[in-house]
Design goal:
Layout (H helix, E strand, L loop, with lengths): L5 H13 L1 H36 L6 E6 L17 E2 H10 L3 E12 L6 E3 L2 E3 L2 E5 L3 H4 L2 E6 L4 H6 L3 E5 H7 L10 E4 L2 E11 L4 H7 L1 E5 H7 L5 E2 L1 E6 L5 H15 L10 E5 H44 L1 H9 L4 H41 L13 H28 L2 H6 L2
Parallel strand pairs: 6-11, 8-10
Antiparallel strand pairs: 1-13, 1-14, 2-12, 3-6, 3-13, 4-5, 4-9, 7-10, 8-11, 9-10
Helix pairs in contact: 2-10, 2-12, 2-13, 3-9, 10-13, 12-13
Length: about 425
């Protein structure tokens, strides 16, 4: 029997129409299996997207290092000693650790809790002021809404310029007022606004970043009498170099420079994003594997249901099969008809399930976007095209295999026995 035998297709469709209710429930098992697989895959991806958007475009191989009190006496110093990182530490890291790609020393002043630390005209507000190098925006990028970001000349010339967040702009300036070039006063010192930024993150941290003002690191040191002090470091490793290894090397260098016991693990605070990112990746890989495990077995249950139903169909059509065999139909032709019928039913049900699943995900995504939700934990549920096609192909192959059992049962019946069947 050829695949495009018109008479056979009429026969298959006629057989399916003869038992509409049975055909529906048989197909529904397959439909539900692939529908749930698509929904679960999309939900897993939505959760993944939500977490990733919470990170913005922050480098996944970044680390943050800050000072803490020493906990072990060393070289005549008592435990509990406080110390500060300095500009000389920054240069030492650059000179001794070439595997560090970006090194961004940072300072913070007036952390947003000071009353009226920023003034423009008759408007006053309180915002967090950060002193940064241009490299910081390569580690934790922001959206540039207007103007420019801090550059190397700002650092070199210690220019009194700032880049303000969108919330700062909204509170200090009128809606139609261009803030670029305007002078704002920060704790009694005037700075020119050269840019407006917005956070790439969509969670509470994103809201905080939109309330931040960035100024050149060297300017902050000089203007607010920090001397050569560094608050903390943001550092990324060169591509392919483990951030955890670089972090150990940074700690060892800084400990040696500040007479800290090599075994004092609490004297330097650190947060390694790479470690957390790997944990997150492993978590989502586990979720994905669980989804496929549950989804595939759900599909198998549906396919087994089709195979069982086709066995019943074969029994009902025993005399018909006997007539076909008596008229010269070969075992291959009989098998082909049963397998094609099974694959056809499986494919149609699977395609409808796939389409319905993708449609539901698009509807959920539209509802999230329409509601204006930030998607802090769940955003843009979607299914990878390759995964969707793989699921459909798996379903078709499973349908073909499921049809082999009833097909073999059909050809195992002797024509004379089939003709006698009542």
């Amino acid at each position: 029997m050829t695949l495009f035998d018109r008479d056979k297709w009429h026969e298959i469709l006629f057989a399916l129409k003869q038992n509409k209710l049975r055909t529906f429930f048989t197909a529904f098992g397959v439909f539900w299996g692939i529908f749930m697989l698509i929904i679960m895959l999309g939900s897993g991806k939505g959760l993944n997207n939500g977490v990733r958007q919470g990170m913005g475009d922050m480098a996944t191989n970044a680390m943050f290092v800050w000072t803490q009190s020493t906990t072990m006496p060393y070289k005549g110093f008592q435990r509990g000693r406080r110390y500060n990182f300095t500009n000389e530490d920054t240069q030492a890291i650059r000179d001794n650790l070439p595997q560090a790609e970006y090194i961004a020393p940072r300072l913070q002043v007036f952390g947003g809790n000071e009353n009226n630390n920023v003034v423009y005209g008759d408007r006053t507000a309180s915002f967090s002021i950060q002193g940064d190098y241009p490299d910081y925006f390569k580690i934790d990028p922001v959206n540039l809404e207007q103007g420019r970001l801090i550059n190397d000349l700002d650092i070199e010339d210690k220019r009194k310029v700032v880049v303000i967040g969108t919330r700062v702009k909204d509170e200090l300036f009128d809606t139609d007022e261009d803030p670029i070039g305007k002078m704002i006063r920060i704790q009694g010192v005037y700075f020119k606004v050269v840019g407006v930024h917005s956070s790439k993150k969509n969670d509470r941290q994103g809201e905080q970043e939109n309330s931040q003002i960035y100024m050149p690191f060297a300017t902050m040191q000089q203007t607010y009498n920090f001397g050569n002090r560094v608050g903390w470091y943001s550092i990324t490793a060169e591509k392919g170099y483990p951030a955890s290894q670089l972090l150990d090397e940074v700690k060892a260098l800084l400990k040696s420079r500040h007479a800290i016991h090599p075994d004092d693990e609490r004297a330097i605070g650190a947060f390694n994003i790479e470690t957390e990112y790997i944990k997150m990746q492993n978590l989502f890989m586990g979720i994905d594997a669980l989804i496929w495990f549950v989804g595939i077995f759900t599909l198998i249950a549906g396919v087994i249901g089709i195979s069982n139903i086709m066995l019943v169909v074969v029994k009902e059509r025993t005399k018909e099969i006997g007539i076909q065999r008596a008229l010269g139909a070969t075992p291959l032709e009989v098998k082909s008809q049963i397998v094609i019928e099974t694959v056809f039913l499986t494919t149609i049900a699977g395609y409808i399930g796939l389409t319905a699943g993708v449609g539901i995900l698009e509807l959920i995504n539209w509802a999230i976007e329409s509601s204006g939700a930030t998607g802090q934990m769940f955003s843009h549920p979607e299914v990878d095209f390759n995964k969707a096609i793989s699921a459909l192909i798996l379903l078709v192959v499973s349908g073909a295999l499921a049809g082999l059992i009833p097909a073999q049962r059909a050809v195992s019946i002797k024509p004379i026995d089939a003709l006698r069947d009542e």
